[in-house]
User: What shape does this take?
Amino acid sequence: MAWKPSEKEEEYFARMEFERKKKLEEEKHQSLALEEKQRLKELHYMKCPKCGMELIEIDYKGIKVDKCSECEGVWLDAGELEAVANLEKTGLDKLFSVFKK
Ligand SMILES: [Zn+2]
Assistant: This one.
């Protein structure tokens, strides 16, 4: 079956239109994903990843340790596990004693 040039053109423009709309939709999805990410970040900021209660942050020798006010889980930011691991035994004991009741 032979195509007339104008039909080919129509097909071409329809495909262009589809591509353009698809791109718009993809951009919408991307900004939605960003908004959702931002929303979740605000929702979960300084909340315990296990039980969802507030975290209490203490600063010990520049290491910020977050302790849950409910389940007593202790959370570290990126790089802080290494910093804690590098503490001397006495430094570690002092860090733990901060949390003792
Ligand atoms: Zn917790």
